[in-house]
Amino acid sequence: QKLKVDDPIDAFAVHGACGAWGVLAAALFDWGKGVDYFNGWSGWSCVQDDNGCVSGAFKQALEANLMEIFIIALWTAFFSLLVF
Questions:
Q1: C-beta separation of 34 from 56 below 8 A
Q2: Per-residue confidence of the chain (84 residues) as pLDDT tens digits?
């Protein structure tokens, strides 16, 4: 409303904000072995290399998810500008 954008069905609130929260929550609530580890696609086991669980994987996953939110917002803004 402050930006004078007509959004009568609250599409941004549902799809934009909740979608961003879902991407962020996927990294934040990936509880596993410990805070510094990440499960991701591994299910209940942590992300591993030849030496076992990878320490610092949580930070990388959080950064990747934040980058995903940013890229999705840029993609949406770009194509919205083309249409409108």
A1: no
A2: 566 666 677 777 788 889 999 999 988 888 666 777 788 766 667 778 888 888 888 888 889 999 999 999 999 889 988 877
